[in-house]
Design a protein that fits this description.
By secondary structure, this protein is α/β, with parallel strands linked by helices. The chain is built from seven helices and seven strands; from the N terminus they run αββαβαβααβαββα. Helix 5 runs parallel beside helix 7.
Length: 169
């Protein structure tokens, strides 16, 4: 009887929490870059967040570096893993924030790296990534400018970007 009760409770909790989940998704553009977007199960959504999304190049450091050199911009790297809860929260809440998106799209070449897949492992080793998410600002030649580990709120990410940009000049 107790076992049935706990199973029923677990099912109610599982299905109840799924109904209001927010999920992050990526849409691929023609130039093989991805942009973070926010989708909600409810009909309420901010039109401003969908009009300006943070654009990421995914898993292609060479492409990001070439673009950064061409545009004379620093590179912002988001090191993440598929199992990282704070990484998913940043995708959902921070990288879709209109202020963050606008600032980074104008001033940075942004790169999203899964640190457990392909070249992401070697890149994570190179930049001494020890936890997730790890956010790095590097210059176009690949030299580290700044790095933070762990969940960062929108204001913290904006501060990181401004600090990185000031150190480049």
């Amino acid at each position: 009887m107790k076992q049935s009760f706990f199973i029923l409770l677990l099912l109610i909790f599982t299905f109840g929490s799924c109904a209001k989940k927010t999920s992050s998704s990526y849409s691929k553009s023609k130039n093989n870059s991805y942009s973070a977007s926010k989708s909600r199960s409810s009909s309420k959504s901010k039109s401003s967040s969908s009009s300006q999304r943070m654009v990421f190049i995914k898993q292609d450091f060479a492409k990001a570096q070439a673009q950064a050199k061409k545009q004379n911009k620093p590179i912002f790297i988001d090191f993440y893993t598929s199992w990282c809860g704070p990484c998913k929260k940043m995708d959902r809440d921070v990288f879709s924030d209109r202020r963050v998106s606008k600032y980074y799209n104008e001033n940075y070449v942004s790169l999203k790296i899964n640190a457990e897949q392909g070249d992401g492992r070697a890149l994570a080793d190179k930049y001494k990534v020890k936890g997730f998410p790890t956010l790095c600002v590097i210059d176009p030649s690949g030299k580290m400018i700044s790095q933070v580990v762990g969940y960062q709120a929108s204001e913290d990410v904006l501060r990181l970007g401004k600090k990185g940009l000031s150190k480049m000049k």
